[in-house]
Write the structure tokens for this entry.
Amino acid sequence: MRGHPLVWLILAAAGLWIGLRRLERLMIFAPSRAMTAHPGTMGLPFERLWLTASDGVRLRAWWIPGPEPDSPAMLCLHGNAGNLSDRVEKMRIFHDAGAAQLWVEWRGYGESSGVPDEPGFYRDARAGYAWLVGPGGAPPSRVVLYGESLGCGPAVQLATEVPAAGLIVESGFASIPAMAELVLPWLPRSLIAARFDNLSKLPRVRVPKLFLHSPQDDIVPYAQARLNFAAAAEPKRFVDLRGTHNEGFRDSRPAYDEAIRAFLAGLPRAPR
């Protein structure tokens, strides 16, 4: 018996919508479960933590104490590919720049449970902040929110919600729809569910901001970084990197290290 044409039309539309959401997730999130290194690989003492997001998802995190008792504490939110173990070189750089660090693993990445999505990433970042200013003992006046690439989205969002000392935006894009225009120019923006809209949120972030981006970035256009910087409220600073999206921090050394060190050193000291 044939079904009603309207039923088939609804089923086809539902299948298309589900397929589009899956494609979007695959294009935005590229998690890896394989852990290939840890802070100890770089000679850093660290503590493995389990955090719990507001929806019950368990998150792996690494706490790396700072070189001084009153070191600024960075909440580090990495990009869309790999996992925490791919960022150990940056952990060494940030430690040498004078920072304590909490690296939060995204849901669906590394040893964390769950499935990655935009609302979940915001919950994961909030869980990291709650630990940092709670059990971690860091005063909000010494917390620096650091976002790398996709991680800039949760870092910027968090900066609109909580007190902090500063925000670092490394290789960040304007928004997911702005990126989709480059990759899928034929796709209407109304069909894109994920936003990670840094451009619209940065004017509301009043803490000091450091933007790091390479003109040779092969994934996130330099022009989007300049749009973000122009929209951001003062105080702010922009530092050009060299090299590709994933190698820019390495190719730009020692200038990269110095930019991080100078930004952290310029923050107010916590009262003893």
